Amino acid sequence: MTIDWNAFAPWPALGGGLLIGVAAAMFLLLNGRIAGISGVVGGLLKPARGDVAWRAAFLLGLAIAPAVYASFASWPALRVEAGDGALVLAGLLVGLGTRYGSGCTSGHGVCGLSRLSPRSLAATLAFMGAGFGTVFVLRHLLGL
Amino acid sequence: MTLFASLLAGLVFGLGLLVSGMANPAKVIGFLDLAGALDPSLAFVMVRCGCSES
Fold it and tell me: Which of A8, A9, A22 is opposite residue B52, by nearest beta carbon?
């Protein structure tokens, strides 16, 4: 295994992680809910009375984040390096997987691990392992 | 109040994803590529998330 030191960016990673952790903690304290993105979106697909507005507000905040980010001119430009087809296919697979696994990187990986949930540890190990495996197969066995 | 808190939490969460680079699929693949040139940045994101929350 070699480390790509050119791509390694610990300060943005630490800063971004801090923001995500603060957002998740704030959500838990003020709303008493787990900031799992897949669960928040999933709940909108089967709307229940009184359970829609906070989900929509959270997703609106998420959706305007790129515009707010772009308003800080000194921050590095955003890059999304993937084809449209790949994004759609990957999004679909992530959606299916997070429903079967009852959560995603935010719900299990961030919120669940912080709460020392064994179920979230199992889920996080499973999806990180599957991620490592998928990249290995695609990049090194199939050469994509 | 909870609506505003939800909006703010979503916004801060999204900014965190953008600042950390997790919104870029190429960056995430760099972290998942153990056999190639590994970019360990995202490990810092996850650890930092957990530390700031607990």
Answer: A22
